[in-house]
Every structure is written in C-alpha cells, then in structure tokens.
Amino acid sequence: MEVFKMNTKNLISEVFTDIEAGKFEKASSFLADSFRGMLLDKEVSRPIYISAYRALLQGFPDLHFTVQNVRTEGSKVSAQVKVTGTNTHAIPALMRGWQEIPATNKKIDGLILEMEMILLGNKIEDIRSPEHARGLFLGLLEKLGLDYKKYSAN
User: Of 54, 66, 62, which Cα lies nearest the Cα of 16?
Assistant: First the structure.
C-alpha cells in the first residue's frame, strides 16, 4: 500500500473542513452522485449523509476533523479521521422517524476512526468505517456513552 498523493488527501480533508465550516453544499460537491455511506445501521445516499453531518454540527458546534495517514490501493483509500468537539446541544434526528440525541456536555477529544473510501474519478463514491460497519456516527455515540438503538429506527 503506497501513501496517497497530497491532492487526494486534500480532497478528503476538504470534505471534512467544509462540514466543520457549515459549507454543506461544497462538501456535497466532492461526493459522487452515486455516493453511499453508512449512518448507524443504514446505508444512505449523499443528501442524507450530508444532512446527518449538518445535524451533528448542531450538536457539536466546535466539531473538528483531522484527516491523517491517508493510503491507497487502486481506487480504494483508507485514512484515519480524528474527531474532537463537545456535545453542548441536542443533535436533531439524523433521519426521519429517528429520535433527537440529547446534549451530554461531554467532550470528545481525539476519537480516531479508521475510514475506508472508494474514489470515482476525483469524487468520493463510498465512505465506511471498517471497525464499525455503521460508520463515524456510531463511534461518536459510543464515546458519548449512548446506545444508538435508542435514537435510530433500526
């Protein structure tokens, strides 16, 4: 496995930087039309994935992502995403029919998640977390001490 070129790391970093800054349309533009990602136990499309990050940012106003250790094998990319922030506000329901996640006032400091992505040209087509098929949101809820089943309709 070879280290990915800097421009690919920048592409991945830009998605998360735009999410932090509330630039959701710009973040969405880096995701392929056929994009699929995991939101707890459910595979979701690009609009729902971006909408879930919008809700997450409401609950974590100081949310910060650091993309590190980016590696590639063909169109497959792996990276670590370090997440920090404080859950000072409720997180609106991530999807219709799910429950709001209450504020815990807990600080997440350095949660590191392994992420796997598939690129389609210069866009991200798929994002998953190998340790949790459910993705980044499950890791955050676990770190907050919350059971995701209480908040999802799964």
Answer: 66
DSSP string, 58-121: HH-TT-EEEEEEEEEETTEEEEEEEEEEE--SPBPPSSTTPPPBPP--PEEEEEEEEEEEEEET
Give pLDDT tens digits for 66-78: 999 999 888 898 8
Q: How far apart are CA 77 and CA 9, in angstroms?
A: 10
When divided into structural domains, the chain yields a total of 1
CATH number of the structural domain spanning residue 38 = 3.10.450.50
Contact between 37 and 126 under an 8 Å Cβ cutoff? The reply is yes
Say how far apart CA 88 and CA 80 lie, in whole Å.
Answer: 25
**In this structure, is residue 30 part of a structural domain?**
yes
Domain boundaries, position 34: 2-145
pTM of the model: 0.85
Question: Could you tell me if residue 150 is inside a domain?
Answer: no
In a domain, 151, yes or no: no
